[in-house]
């Protein structure tokens, strides 16, 4: 079979405009839409907008906007692998190549839901974006332009506003997006009445997404193609677990009834507790694990939880150093953590530590540092494992360990910070102190100077010395022996 001959969705009208064509949206939101369509609960399709000039749209188009989605993991307490052909998408638009078609999306009456996943880097304001530009650089700039087109097309009709559901993993994602849209309205002088329409007739809903969607399964793609009988270039794999918490009312639930289709979608008044729980436990555990397990010689999350030493390190980090710092019910947190650990043990998913390591410095700041600081406040001492992870990052970001290169991906300023810091290292303790001080003192990342946390610098220096002189395994033992 040739993927180009695939038939796409039954002819559903476009109901969703989706900014982003990446793995996550295809394995999460588009899965929900496909499921709703199967059960006649939605009868809508997705128009995909490619947020960057380069992306996957040409491949999507060549496959008639369909792709295979594998779900692998524990479902109803049983290990289950299933796959299906997703037909939720109906059209793709690259606004950098066809701005007119992009704007025409605003005229589709049924297209009233906006979803996005433009990574943590996507929700930003850039005053260089201009109204008369064909395709603003930023996602909020593009969205503002689209909203303005809709406002004009429907003469400010209050019933034609959008429901905006961002998936970006940042605090109050919809509030941040709305702030950026408002800033563009001011920058481009789009007027008070448009501003009031955006404010009153559109619903920006903060959301929290949770599903592990590792990247394209390039390692075993040949086996997958053999099983499928066709060469799908956009196979997406995910776990079975899914949770989307949406801060939205009945109107939002009626417009997007994925909960009725068997997806775990909660419509709540406040996403904050769910977000804190997920970011600090699941993402915090990932970010704590990555450098420790990688320098220990492990490549995936599964191998990490199967290794007795790394597993013990991780369990103690979660249960002794992260959970006690959270204010939610301890019992509920422990239940959630147990479920997260089961998800890490998913035998079917190869989640590479290196893929989680992308932009780890900002991830440590948002996902782990709050636990470290709260632990210090509560106990007047530092959480050893979270500090050990920080020390491990110092070595990891050196870009080389035990004669092996490490392909770090992070912002330019972070790469330069580490390069400059390690350049002057001469093997002496004093120069190691300089490396650690330079990193801990980098306020743009930490939003403060971590050298001011009593004892942190010395503990990090000590741990880094152990890693460099004796290896990661010995650091893990040293941390255990301190108990
Ligand atoms: N993969 C997961 O398990 C998972 C789970 C929950 C949340 N997420 C979030 O998804 C993000 C990664 O998405 P993915 O896994 O689909 O990766 P991906 O690389 O497949 O897709 C990334 C998408 O973001 C867009 N993008 C990248 N930089 C951008 C920018 N500066 N401005 C606008 N758009 C930009 C790309 O065009 C692409 O559509 C992470 O930042 C994470 O917070 C991922
Ligand atoms: O996707 P990132 O790069 O923000 O973070 C890596 C993982 O922690 C993350 O993808 C989790 O698997 C996901 O957030 C689970 O819902």
UniProtKB/TrEMBL annotation:
This entry carries the following GO cellular component terms, namely:
cytosol
Q: Name one Pfam family in it.
A: Mannitol_dh
The answer, when asked if Heme is one of the entry's keywords, is no
Q: Which residues form the Mannitol dehydrogenase N-terminal domain?
A: 15-251
Domain named Mannitol dehydrogenase C-terminal: which ranges? 270-464
Q: What class of enzyme is it?
A: oxidoreductase
Q: Entry's InterPro entries?
A: 6-PGluconate_DH-like_C_sf, 6PGD_dom2, Mannitol_DH, Mannitol_DH_C, Mannitol_DH_N, NAD(P)-bd_dom_sf
Q: Which reaction does it catalyse?
A: D-mannitol 1-phosphate + NAD(+) = beta-D-fructose 6-phosphate + NADH + H(+)
Q: Which GO terms describe its molecular function?
A: mannitol-1-phosphate 5-dehydrogenase activity; tagaturonate reductase activity
One BP annotation, GO:
D-galacturonate catabolic process
| Domain of life the protein comes from | Bacteria
In terms of NCBIfam families, this protein maps to:
PRK03643.1
Q: What is this protein called?
A: Tagaturonate reductase (Altronate oxidoreductase)
Q: Which organism is it from?
A: Petrocella atlantisensis
Q: What does the organism's lineage look like at the top?
A: Bacteria, Bacillati, Bacillota, Clostridia, Lachnospirales
Q: Which gene encodes it?
A: uxaB
